[in-house]
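Extended Data, panel c. Modelled sequence:
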Amino acid sequence: PSVTGKPADSDIREGKRHLLYAKSVAALRGGDRELFVEKWGAGSALSDQDVATLRALVESSGAAAQVEDLLRALGDEAGRALAKAELDSECGAALDALRRLSIWRER
C-alpha cells in the first residue's frame, strides 16, 4: 500500500484481467490453470493462503518476469525517444522522471 496506495492483494481479490493475469493463464496448464482461473477474483472468499498460492502461480508461470521484461524494454525505448527529442533540459528531466516513476517502483 505504501507504494501503490492500494492493498497488495486487491487485483487478485477483485479479479483484474490485466496483462499479468493473461500471461499467467496462457502459461499455466492442468490443475494449476483451473485453480488460477477459479480463484482469481473470488474476493473475500479468498484466504491469505489462496492469495499466496495465486501469487506463487504468477511467479512460477513466468508471467511476472515476462511483464517486468516488457516494462523494462518499453521504458528503455521511451528513454531513448526522450533523449532524441528536442526538449529543454527542465522539460526533458521532468518527462524522464515521470517515465521512471510510472514504470519502476519498489515491490
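The two ends are 10 Å apart (CA to CA). This feature is highlighted in the accompanying rendering.
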